[in-house]
Amino acid sequence: MLTLYHCNGSRSMRSLWLLHEMGIEFELKELTFSMEGLRTPEYLAISPLGRVPCLVDNGVSVFESGAIAQYLGEHYDPEGELHRPVGHPERTEWLIWLHYAETMAVHGASLVQQKVFIAREERSPVVQKLESRRLEKSLEVVDRHLADRDYLLKSGFSTVDTNVGYSVHLAKGFVSLEPFANVVKYYERLAARPAFKKAAASVPLDEQAPAEAKRK
Protein backbone atom coordinates (compact mmCIF):
# COMPACT_ATOMS: atom_id res chain seq x y z
CA MET A 1 0.00 0.00 0.00
CA LEU A 2 1.09 3.56 -0.65
CA THR A 3 1.85 5.69 2.38
CA LEU A 4 1.77 9.48 2.28
CA TYR A 5 3.46 11.55 4.98
CA HIS A 6 1.59 14.82 5.29
CA CYS A 7 1.28 17.95 7.42
CA ASN A 8 -1.99 19.84 7.45
CA GLY A 9 -1.72 23.26 5.85
CA SER A 10 1.49 22.44 3.96
CA ARG A 11 2.27 21.85 0.29
CA SER A 12 1.85 18.12 0.86
CA MET A 13 -1.81 18.97 0.21
CA ARG A 14 -0.83 18.66 -3.46
CA SER A 15 -0.05 14.97 -3.12
CA LEU A 16 -3.02 14.28 -0.84
CA TRP A 17 -5.36 15.99 -3.30
CA LEU A 18 -3.93 14.05 -6.24
CA LEU A 19 -4.30 10.71 -4.45
CA HIS A 20 -7.95 11.53 -3.76
CA GLU A 21 -8.45 12.53 -7.41
CA MET A 22 -6.93 9.25 -8.58
CA GLY A 23 -9.01 7.18 -6.20
CA ILE A 24 -5.98 5.20 -5.05
CA GLU A 25 -6.04 3.37 -1.74
CA PHE A 26 -3.36 4.75 0.55
CA GLU A 27 -2.38 5.16 4.18
CA LEU A 28 -2.10 8.70 5.48
CA LYS A 29 0.53 9.48 8.10
CA GLU A 30 -0.11 12.95 9.52
CA LEU A 31 2.86 14.65 11.13
CA THR A 32 2.92 17.81 13.22
CA PHE A 33 4.45 20.83 11.51
CA SER A 34 7.31 21.19 13.97
CA MET A 35 10.93 20.23 14.48
CA GLU A 36 9.80 17.52 16.87
CA GLY A 37 7.37 16.07 14.35
CA LEU A 38 9.55 16.22 11.24
CA ARG A 39 13.07 15.63 12.53
CA THR A 40 12.71 12.25 14.20
CA PRO A 41 15.36 9.68 13.21
CA GLU A 42 12.59 7.47 11.84
CA TYR A 43 11.25 10.14 9.51
CA LEU A 44 14.69 11.41 8.47
CA ALA A 45 15.45 7.87 7.30
CA ILE A 46 12.53 8.23 4.90
CA SER A 47 12.76 11.92 3.97
CA PRO A 48 16.37 13.14 4.35
CA LEU A 49 15.48 16.81 4.91
CA GLY A 50 12.57 15.98 7.16
CA ARG A 51 10.03 17.70 4.95
CA VAL A 52 6.66 16.82 3.51
CA PRO A 53 5.28 15.41 1.34
CA CYS A 54 6.95 12.05 1.17
CA LEU A 55 5.40 9.04 -0.54
CA VAL A 56 6.50 5.49 0.23
CA ASP A 57 5.62 2.73 -2.22
CA ASN A 58 6.86 -0.78 -1.51
CA GLY A 59 9.93 0.51 0.28
CA VAL A 60 10.67 3.23 -2.28
CA SER A 61 10.63 6.76 -0.84
CA VAL A 62 9.68 9.59 -3.17
CA PHE A 63 9.95 13.15 -1.91
CA GLU A 64 9.25 16.50 -3.65
CA SER A 65 5.63 17.06 -4.66
CA GLY A 66 6.43 17.39 -8.36
CA ALA A 67 8.31 14.07 -8.34
CA ILE A 68 5.44 12.43 -6.47
CA ALA A 69 2.97 13.69 -9.08
CA GLN A 70 5.09 12.30 -11.90
CA TYR A 71 5.70 9.01 -10.07
CA LEU A 72 2.00 8.47 -9.41
CA GLY A 73 1.20 9.20 -13.03
CA GLU A 74 3.79 6.83 -14.42
CA HIS A 75 2.97 3.98 -12.03
CA TYR A 76 -0.73 4.38 -11.32
CA ASP A 77 -2.20 6.24 -14.30
CA PRO A 78 -0.76 4.47 -17.38
CA GLU A 79 -3.72 5.52 -19.53
CA GLY A 80 -2.92 9.18 -18.91
CA GLU A 81 -6.22 10.28 -17.41
CA LEU A 82 -4.42 12.86 -15.28
CA HIS A 83 -0.83 12.15 -16.29
CA ARG A 84 0.69 13.05 -19.67
CA PRO A 85 3.20 10.33 -20.62
CA VAL A 86 6.17 10.66 -22.97
CA GLY A 87 4.87 10.99 -26.52
CA HIS A 88 1.60 12.63 -25.50
CA PRO A 89 1.00 15.88 -27.44
CA GLU A 90 0.51 17.78 -24.17
CA ARG A 91 3.57 16.27 -22.47
CA THR A 92 5.80 19.36 -22.74
CA GLU A 93 3.08 21.75 -21.58
CA TRP A 94 2.25 19.36 -18.73
CA LEU A 95 5.87 19.32 -17.57
CA ILE A 96 6.14 23.11 -17.71
CA TRP A 97 3.12 23.64 -15.46
CA LEU A 98 4.10 20.80 -13.15
CA HIS A 99 7.31 22.67 -12.30
CA TYR A 100 5.86 26.17 -12.55
CA ALA A 101 3.81 25.26 -9.50
CA GLU A 102 6.99 25.36 -7.43
CA THR A 103 8.01 28.73 -8.88
CA MET A 104 4.77 30.10 -7.45
CA ALA A 105 5.01 28.23 -4.16
CA VAL A 106 8.51 29.47 -3.36
CA HIS A 107 7.19 33.04 -3.07
CA GLY A 108 4.31 31.84 -0.91
CA ALA A 109 6.76 29.90 1.26
CA SER A 110 8.82 33.03 1.80
CA LEU A 111 5.70 34.84 2.97
CA VAL A 112 4.83 31.94 5.28
CA GLN A 113 8.27 32.34 6.84
CA GLN A 114 7.63 36.04 7.38
CA LYS A 115 4.14 35.54 8.79
CA VAL A 116 4.64 32.39 10.86
CA PHE A 117 8.21 31.43 11.59
CA ILE A 118 9.99 34.75 12.05
CA ALA A 119 9.40 36.76 15.21
CA ARG A 120 7.29 39.85 14.57
CA GLU A 121 10.10 42.28 15.42
CA GLU A 122 12.41 40.56 12.95
CA ARG A 123 10.05 40.47 9.98
CA SER A 124 10.96 42.47 6.89
CA PRO A 125 8.36 44.73 5.23
CA VAL A 126 10.67 44.93 2.22
CA VAL A 127 10.80 41.16 1.81
CA GLN A 128 7.04 40.88 2.29
CA LYS A 129 6.36 43.54 -0.34
CA LEU A 130 8.85 42.05 -2.82
CA GLU A 131 7.62 38.47 -2.43
CA SER A 132 3.97 39.57 -2.64
CA ARG A 133 4.68 41.34 -5.91
CA ARG A 134 6.53 38.32 -7.28
CA LEU A 135 3.60 36.15 -6.33
CA GLU A 136 1.22 38.51 -8.12
CA LYS A 137 3.40 38.40 -11.25
CA SER A 138 3.31 34.61 -11.21
CA LEU A 139 -0.49 34.74 -10.96
CA GLU A 140 -0.59 37.09 -13.96
CA VAL A 141 1.05 34.39 -16.06
CA VAL A 142 -1.57 31.83 -15.01
CA ASP A 143 -4.37 34.34 -15.57
CA ARG A 144 -3.30 35.02 -19.17
CA HIS A 145 -2.92 31.32 -19.86
CA LEU A 146 -6.46 30.59 -18.64
CA ALA A 147 -8.06 33.11 -21.00
CA ASP A 148 -9.27 30.40 -23.42
CA ARG A 149 -9.61 27.34 -21.18
CA ASP A 150 -11.03 26.08 -17.90
CA TYR A 151 -7.90 24.24 -16.77
CA LEU A 152 -4.20 24.55 -17.50
CA LEU A 153 -4.35 21.99 -20.31
CA LYS A 154 -6.97 22.40 -23.01
CA SER A 155 -7.91 18.74 -22.71
CA GLY A 156 -9.15 19.35 -19.17
CA PHE A 157 -8.26 18.73 -15.54
CA SER A 158 -4.92 17.01 -14.94
CA THR A 159 -2.17 16.51 -12.37
CA VAL A 160 -0.78 19.98 -13.01
CA ASP A 161 -4.00 21.51 -11.73
CA THR A 162 -3.46 19.90 -8.33
CA ASN A 163 0.07 21.31 -8.15
CA VAL A 164 -0.60 24.81 -9.51
CA GLY A 165 -3.99 24.80 -7.83
CA TYR A 166 -2.36 24.34 -4.44
CA SER A 167 -0.03 27.26 -5.21
CA VAL A 168 -3.07 29.43 -5.95
CA HIS A 169 -4.67 28.17 -2.74
CA LEU A 170 -1.53 29.25 -0.86
CA ALA A 171 -1.28 32.58 -2.69
CA LYS A 172 -4.78 33.71 -1.75
CA GLY A 173 -3.68 33.86 1.87
CA PHE A 174 -1.21 36.63 1.04
CA VAL A 175 -2.44 38.52 -2.03
CA SER A 176 -5.83 39.26 -3.52
CA LEU A 177 -6.96 37.12 -6.44
CA GLU A 178 -9.50 39.74 -7.52
CA PRO A 179 -7.27 41.38 -10.18
CA PHE A 180 -7.02 37.98 -11.89
CA ALA A 181 -10.53 37.16 -13.07
CA ASN A 182 -9.55 33.96 -14.86
CA VAL A 183 -7.65 32.71 -11.81
CA VAL A 184 -10.66 33.44 -9.59
CA LYS A 185 -12.92 31.30 -11.81
CA TYR A 186 -10.24 28.62 -12.02
CA TYR A 187 -9.89 28.46 -8.26
CA GLU A 188 -13.66 28.25 -7.84
CA ARG A 189 -13.72 25.24 -10.19
CA LEU A 190 -10.92 23.57 -8.27
CA ALA A 191 -12.40 24.29 -4.84
CA ALA A 192 -15.70 22.70 -5.91
CA ARG A 193 -14.03 19.36 -6.60
CA PRO A 194 -14.74 16.69 -3.94
CA ALA A 195 -11.08 15.63 -3.85
CA PHE A 196 -9.98 19.23 -3.21
CA LYS A 197 -12.44 19.53 -0.33
CA LYS A 198 -11.07 16.37 1.28
CA ALA A 199 -7.47 17.53 0.98
CA ALA A 200 -8.16 21.11 2.06
CA ALA A 201 -9.89 20.14 5.29
CA SER A 202 -6.80 21.05 7.29
CA VAL A 203 -5.51 23.36 9.98
CA PRO A 204 -3.88 26.58 8.70
CA LEU A 205 -0.11 26.81 9.01
CA ASP A 206 -0.21 29.70 11.46
CA GLU A 207 -2.25 27.58 13.88
CA GLN A 208 0.29 24.75 13.74
CA ALA A 209 3.54 26.62 14.05
CA PRO A 210 5.70 25.85 17.07
CA ALA A 211 5.12 28.24 19.97
CA GLU A 212 8.59 29.77 19.69
CA ALA A 213 7.85 30.66 16.08
CA LYS A 214 4.75 32.60 17.05
CA ARG A 215 6.31 35.13 19.35
CA LYS A 216 4.69 38.55 19.32
Number of strands: 4
- Read across the widest sheet, the strand sequence of neighbours is 2-1-3-4
Query: Tell me, what's the shape?
Result: globular
Q: pLDDT below 50 for ≥5 consecutive residues: which ranges?
A: 203-216
Distance between the termini: 43 Å
What Rg is obtained from the alpha carbons, in whole angstroms?
A: 17 Å
* Helix segment tally: 10
Strand content: 5-15%
- Sheet with the most strands, sense and barrel status: 4 strands, mixed
- The proportion of residues forming helix, as a percent range, comes to 40-55%
Query: Strand pairing plus helix content: what structural class?
Result: alpha+beta
- The H/E string reads EHEHHEEHHHHHHH
Please name the defining characteristics of this protein:
52% helix, 4 strands, alpha+beta, 10 helices, single chain, disordered C terminus, four-stranded mixed sheet, 216 residues
